[in-house]
Amino acid sequence: PPTTPKSKPLSEPTIEEVAKGITDGTFKKIIVMTGAGISVAAGIPDFRTPGTGLYYNLQKYDLPFPEAVFEIRYFQQRPEPFYALAKEMWPSNYKPTITHHFIRLLEEKGVLLRNYTQNIDTLERQAGISPELLVEAHGSFGTTRCIKCKREVDQEWLREKVFRDEIPKCSDCEGLIKPDITFFGENLPERFHTLTHPDFQQCDLLFVIGTSLEVYPFASLVDRPKSDVPRVLINMEEVGPFESTKKDDCRDVKVLGDCQASVRELAKLLHWESELDELVHQG
Ligand code: APR
After folding, report:
1. Which residues form the active site (predicted)?
2. Is the pLDDT of residue 73 over 90?
3. 40 lines ligand 1 (CB under 6 A)
4. 117 lines ligand 1 (CB under 6 A)
5. Which residue's CA is the closest to the ligand 1 atom numbered 31?
6. Tens digit of each residue's pLDDT (9 = 90 or more) over 182-225
7. Residue 3: which pLDDT band, with cuts at 50, 70 and 90?
8. Most buried of 34, 134, 144, 212 (most Cβ within 10 A)?
9. Secondary structure of the chain in the HEC alphabet?
């Protein structure tokens, strides 16, 4: 099929036009940026939604400010709040959502270039997205190590300590043990820095799903695609540069509302509904 001229991949900023561009092969190097909003339906609260977000429910830990629970310096002085929270959030009995399965479907269709996620719940892995197509930009509960000597520690050992409310210390150097999630004040994984430049050179369509775009450097990815690459926000609210998009600007498409319903609508437009349901049933 003839591909539309590169200059204006979308004739109008609508999700219908985006779906057309995916089916007619215009978009085949898709990057998906995701945040906590896509796991809310799995039962994991996000961080900043007023009232239900995690940062609104940390009073019992008596923190100086909510993000302190993920601050490396605060953690070294007072690790208890993080471990108590880890106990609540431990990714054990959560299941991927429709959105996680949709990203897996993009991979099966051969059009997923990369999924950059901020989530630490490992639901992308559970949904079957290939590790090489995944960048867990804020790390994950997947691996665990001593923050002092960096010795890797068995995750089961940590889980037992955390669930027994014992502070896990390294048997070699007495350092604190934590899952490899990126705390404020720590560097993002090397993989984030090595892949972003080449990826965004090739990216021909960007999805931004379930994130407030408040945390850098992850949020800066939204400005990395080339100027003619459409950006599709699927989110409860307008965030980041989408807040100031002009109405007729063909660059940005906004689908506001519950991402699970919006993704299902998109799958319908792509005629991928039965395949998506298949993946959802596999769980
Ligand atoms: N459908 C669509 N959007 C949703 C839904 C939903 N069902 N539920 C929540 N959202 C939106 C919220 O409106 C908000 O814009 O998802 C976004 C979630 O934003 P945050 O709670 O800030 O989560 P996130 O953007 O992932 O946070 C980034 O902050 O604390 C750090 O390291 C932590 O990775 C995290 C980072």
Report:
1. 138 (proton acceptor)
2. yes
3. yes
4. no
5. 215
6. 999 999 999 999 999 999 999 999 999 999 999 999 999 999 99
7. low
8. 34
9. CCCCCCCCCCCCCCHHHHHHHHHCCCCCCEEEEECHHHCHHHCCCCCCCCCCCHHHCCHHHCCCCHHHHHEHHHHHHCCHHHHHHHHHHCCCCCCCCHHHHHHHHHHHCCCEEEEEECCCCCHHHHCCCCHHHEEECCEEEEEEEECCCCCEECHHHHHHHHHCCCCCECCCCCCEEEEEECCECCCCCHHHHHHHHHHHHHCCEEEEECCCCCCCCHHHHHHCCCCCCCEEEEECCCCHHHHHCCCCCCCEEEEECCHHHHHHHHHHHCCCHHHHHHHHHHC
